[in-house]
Amino acid sequence: MTIKKENITRCQWAGNDELYIKYHDEEWGVPLYDDDKLFEFLILEGFQAGLSWITILRKRESFRKAFDNFEALKIVKYDAQKVEELMQDAGIIRNRLKIEGTITNARIFLEIQQEYGSFREYIWQFVGGQPIVNQRSSLGSVPARTDISDAMSKTLKKRGFKFIGTTICYAFMQATGMVNDHIVNCICYNR
């Protein structure tokens, strides 16, 4: 099912919220290769667990401010005092395990960059370096996980990443354009 607005067909999940529509039209499913942005999405997807993505989008600027624009080199230095400061920040999701997990993930992210030259080189290998272009006809045909997201989750967990289950990995893959899950009649499908 799709929503038509001004004769434009979009994926149904974009709804009528202008922030969601902008995200759908400009970001979701666009192949992303910038390490800092990939890290941001990985962290935000983890914070989204159990919540709606629109909640995260509405808080994204606060997250960027609170987490030093997702600069892993800064985050890895966060101490107990910084964690407590973040726990008091009403602009973000105040979940201690997710905040502490972000610090752990920053450390592992930096280790991967060191090992592979970039996080991009590492993460895009799961799809052979090219976006997977699916041919979904409806929102109902989009899975919550795939064998690839299972493998990504398992490998990242083995490295020590937190909040990185297979559903989170698949949402990350969709958001960063590793897979194109726009429905085939969506304006963004053939982007």
TrEMBL record:
Pfam families named among the record's database cross-references: Adenine_glyco
Recorded catalytic activity of this chain's protein: Hydrolysis of alkylated DNA, releasing 3-methyladenine
An example Gene Ontology molecular-function term: metal ion binding
Domain of life: Bacteria
Annotated Zn(2+) binding sites: 11, 24, 182, 186
Top-level EC class: hydrolase
Entry keyword annotation includes Cytoplasm: no
Membrane-crossing segments per the record: none
Swiss-Prot/TrEMBL GO biological process terms: base-excision repair
EC number(s) per entry: 3.2.2.20
UniProt xrefs under InterPro entries: Adenine_glyco, DNA-3mA_glycosylase, DNA_glycosylase, Tag
Sorted UniProt keywords: DNA damage, DNA repair, Hydrolase, Metal-binding, Zinc
PANTHER family: DNA-3-METHYLADENINE GLYCOSYLASE 1 (PTHR30037), DNA-3-METHYLADENINE GLYCOSYLASE I (PTHR30037:SF4)
Protein role: Hydrolysis of the deoxyribose N-glycosidic bond to excise 3-methyladenine from the damaged DNA polymer formed by alkylation lesions.
Name of the protein in its database record: DNA-3-methyladenine glycosylase I
Organism: Arcicella aurantiaca
